[in-house]
UniProtKB/TrEMBL annotation:
Entry superkingdom: Bacteria
SMART domains: Lactamase_B
Alphabetical UniProt keywords: Hydrolase, Metal-binding, Zinc
Gene Ontology molecular functions: hydrolase activity; metal ion binding
Name assigned to this protein: Subclass B3 metallo-beta-lactamase
Metal-binding found in the keyword field: yes
Residues covered by the Metallo-beta-lactamase domain: 52-242
Cofactor: Zn(2+)
Gene3D superfamilies hit by this protein: Ribonuclease Z/Hydroxyacylglutathione hydrolase-like
InterPro entries in UniProt: MBL_Glyoxalase_II, Metallo-B-lactamas, RibonucZ/Hydroxyglut_hydro
Pfam families recorded: Lactamase_B (PF00753)
Amino acid sequence: MRNTMWAIIFFLPATSVDAQKVQEPKGNHPEWSKPFPPFRIAGNLYYVGTYDLACYLITTPQGNILINTGLAASATQIKNNIKSLGFQLADTKILLTTQAHYDHMGAMAAIKKATGAQFMADAKEADVLASGGQTDYELGKYGTTFTPIQPDKLLQNGDTIALGNMQLVILHHPGHTKGSCSYLFTVQDEQKTYKVLIANMPSIITDRPFNTISNYPTIASDYAYTLAAMKNIIFDIWLASHASQFNLHQKYKAGGAYNPAAFMDHAGYLEALTDLQQQYEEQPK
């Protein structure tokens, strides 16, 4: 999702030391808060996000994993989505994010407080998370855009996140943020086992040359690393941080009919990466 698209303003109490006001950037992007029916993707993996802000629930006998939380105002919507699928938000044991931006982190602190879940994040996002977005090289110009939060555990590339019968591997995919990451794991239903990639697609900053971004001097090499690494991932199903990035609305069956095959779209993944690679090549370094 291009960084020129912003959300409606919401206000939350800040928890940072200086208690600055949390204010999401202005804009008119209704798809980020528009409701979308929750549904089962494959095995014990479910979509519980909004129309465009993708949030994922992975269930286990020992509790559940929630990846991303959308905007601050989406907390109730996510809770209701989880409940409508027959699960409870209170059973969330681990919280994860694909990137430290307010459109994925907005409700994270509130949900952590409500559930007592452990929040784990890529180590390169630690300072941005603690500042509520203030230290982000791009969105920091808007100040504190989500409630600051301290991860319970910092993760490195290739680390395993384990809960119950699930093991997720974190893949460090920097560029869009310094600690953007993807997750690779396996789910199983009655018929088949699926290797799933929740991909943090490296949307390219295109409004200025990379060499002018002084507070992220390695952005060009980080993007290059991520684009190369993502081309070599082996998977059956791929998803992303935004529904629009993997054509969820075209793949979703009316009424939520169970159809994992719709998300087995390797060609679409490579096409998306090719487009991002072209944007990267065209950007002055």
